[in-house]
Amino acid sequence: MSDTTFDYVIIGAGTAGCLLANRLSADPGRRVLLIEAGGKDDYHWIHIPVGYLYCIGNPRTDWLYRTEADAGLNGRELRYPRGKTLGGSSSINGMIYMRGQSRDYDQWAQLTGDASWRWEQCLPYFKKHEDYYKGADAVHGVGGEWRVERQRLRWDILDAFAQAAQEAGIPHSEDFNRGSNEGVGYFQVNQKNGWRWNTAKAFLRPICYGRPNFEMWTRAHVKRLHIAPGADGALRCDGAEVWTGDELLNVRATRQVLLCAGAIGSPQLLQLSGIGPADLLQRHGIEVLHDAPGVGGNLQDHLQIRAVFKVQGVETLNTLANSWWGKARIGLEYLLKRSGPMSMAPSQLGAFTRSTPEQPWPNVEYHVQPLSLDAFGEPLHPFNAFTASVCNLNPTSRGTVRIRSNRFEDAPAIAPNYLSTAEDRQVAADSLRLTRRIVAQPALARFQPTEWRPGVQYQSDAELARLAGDIATTIFHPVGTTRMGRDDDPLAVLDSQLRVRGVAGLRVVDAGAMPTITSGNTNSPTLMMAEKAAEWVVREAG
Question: Are 393 and 366 in contact (CB under 8 A)?
């Protein structure tokens, strides 16, 4: 750490940061520093797929955030996992490869006034880093760093749910990533031969580690960005203050700082650095360098409503994992074949459909699991059951991320404001009814499904909406808190090329830049955005 001047400083070695580090350090003439607050991804549970159970809620790999008490959740707080290790949330997430729907990106193009965000223009950037197990075609790439595979398991109860969904009018799908994800099928996952494939393995190892122009600091916390007037009097970001645990270092970026700390960390750092809503900053004794009221606003997330059904005459993980013989069988299968329950993502079967026939596009997503429990991290139930979790893909509720103090060590206040609109409450009620309709189809009848949670006594819109507040939880997809937008949009933090408005030399490249949430899991769209940003940065360098 003796030399602290670089061409590019990347803050956050998560999904976007790892890809940017790879792309920007490819030219030996560019010196690149990657800063990560967490440690190395050398914890064995990061790499065994089922290890997310031991990474979420673990200070070694998780920031351990919690939300504020939420009125839409009837006063409940939620655990809010975010990855704190190399690979970021790609080291602890559900490993599901999901691009969303083509209309998501067409909407981004409209909101930003930039046609380069249209689906057809984004598709090449998905393909550029993809290594698709079936080979290349019109929408998939091979040979890239980001491995996409089929899951190495199946369950009779999930096959039956998929058949029931088809009986309810949802078509079968082999691939959710072709622009329209409507259908039911097993999710594709970011794994390689039964191991989790995180962005640190994909983009940093081994290639970046062997580049003399690349440097990486772990367990290094950025205290604030360094922002000051440039020669022309305009504000410019030219570095950051970094706390290593032993000393405070000032790093300098001669070209750009790329903030990739995520939809929670990036707005927090901007606010700590004097970029954000003026009243918030003044309240915490921070000098207002740039009054940007949109920083930390527009928080969007997918809220899943978990319905549990007891079943008879079919094995689920509940009973398999609740016996010593079952656990031994699970461990042996993974040891010998890298398959079975230890290789499985948190959700295995997916479905995308309309909550009611009047919806113009698939507006809900199912994550279906051959197990049940009271809450994440709690023991499995002692009876056979499956869980059908459903989320509103396009929530209209908006929340905030706000600093609590001027100390970088203090976690920000996260207020998702779930179910705060009539539209979201209606979709919640409708989606629970849809779940019941699927489960009532003939394909599941032989297993005698019985609704254990929430319970058939809840029927009206008001009852179901309130019930959703009682049982729903996040799927960990926060986005939008530093959103890009048009030049005339006062709440757009970034321009359409992810540059911070009003501050030169600074980009935000992470899920916070999304103006609206994608219709599915958010990890792979973030990689696509980073791929585009890397190209812009290189082009600007000449």
Answer: no
Ranges of each domain in the chain: 5-44+200-299+479-541, 152-186+303-392+419-471
How far, in Å, CA of 22 to CA of 298, rounded?
30
Residues 6+ away with beta carbon under 8 Å from 384: 310, 311, 312, 314, 315, 316, 318, 319
Q: Considering the entire predicted model, what is its pTM?
A: 0.96
User: Residues annotated in the binding site for FAD, as ranges?
Assistant: 222
pLDDT digits (tens, 9 = 90+) for 156-203: 999 999 999 999 999 999 999 999 999 999 999 999 999 999 999 999
| Residue 206 pLDDT exceeds 90 | no
Strands of 55-193, DSSP E: 65-66, 79-80, 130-132, 146-150, 183-186, 188-189, 191-192
Catalytic one of 140, 302, 367, 477 = 477
Is 133 a residue whose pLDDT tops 60? Answer: yes
**Contact indicator for 335, 327 with CB cutoff of 8 Å:** no
- For residue 284, indicate whether it is catalytic: no
For range 360-379, the mean pLDDT: 91
Nearest to 434 by CA among 467, 493, 391: 391
Task: Considering the domain delimited by 5-44+200-299+479-541, tell me its CATH architecture.
Answer: 3-Layer(bba) Sandwich (3.50)
Using CA atoms, how far apart are residues 234 and 227, in angstroms rounded to an integer? 10
* pLDDT 10s digits, 207-262: 999 999 999 999 999 999 999 988 788 999 999 999 999 999 999 999 999 999 99
CA geometry: angle 295, 300, 304, nearest 5 deg: 155
Contacts of 24 (CB under 8 A, 6+ apart): 8, 10, 30, 32, 534, 537, 538
> Distance between alpha carbon 240 and the CA centroid of its chain, in Å?
26
Least Cα distance to 414 among 404, 424, 428 occurs for: 404
Residue positions in the annotated binding site?
A: 222
Q: Report whether CATH 3.30.410.40 matches the domain 152-186+303-392+419-471.
A: yes
- Chain center to CA of 515: 15
Residue 92 predicted with pLDDT over 60: yes
- Under 8 Å between Cβ of 96 and 189: yes
187 vs 175: CA distance, rounded Å? 8
* Location of structure tokens 């499985």: 344
pLDDT tens digits along 262-281: 999 999 999 999 999 999 99
Whether 5-44+200-299+479-541 and 152-186+303-392+419-471 share one fold: the answer is no
Cα of 68 vs its chain's centroid, Å: 20
User: Beta 400-402 vs 413-415: how paired, if at all?
Assistant: antiparallel
